[in-house]
Design goal:
By secondary structure, the protein is α/β, with parallel strands linked by helices. It has helices at residues 25-37, 55-70, 82-90, 103-110, and strands spanning 2-8, 11-20, 42-53, 74-78, 98-100. Helices cover 41% and strands 33% of the residues.
């Protein structure tokens, strides 16, 4: 898994590529830790290059959402493949997270 970060109009965009699983979840948690410590309020997580997410990855995102909310932040998820979207729907997590079809839609939701 690879994580890169960029900023646009005060919003942090986190691009993730590869699989999010039990082996890579700690790396994801560590990356998001810096957002929590910096009190980053607006984050878009781009899933366009995520090929798979397992239950540990889902648990990591739930934890991150809760931690960000405690410091007044939140994030949107965008550009999921149908395969990954199905995992969120089967687990009903699509009701917990704000998921958008495109990066532009997620960014515009913050404005």
């Amino acid at each position: 898994m690879n994580i890169t970060e960029e900023k646009k109009d005060g919003i942090t965009i986190c691009n993730i590529s590869g699989e999010i699983n039990i082996n890579t979840s700690p790396q994801l948690r560590k990356s998001f830790e810096s957002f929590v410590e910096a009190n980053t309020a607006k984050i878009v997580v781009d899933f366009s290059q995520v090929s798979y997410i397992d239950s540990s990855g889902l648990a990591t995102f739930i934890e991150l959402l809760q931690r960000l909310k405690k410091v007044g932040g939140t994030f949107r998820i965008c550009s999921m493949s149908q395969k990954v979207k199905n995992i969120f729907e089967v687990t009903k997590l699509h009701k917990l997270f704000e998921i958008f079809d495109s990066r532009e839609a997620a960014l515009n939701n913050f404005l």
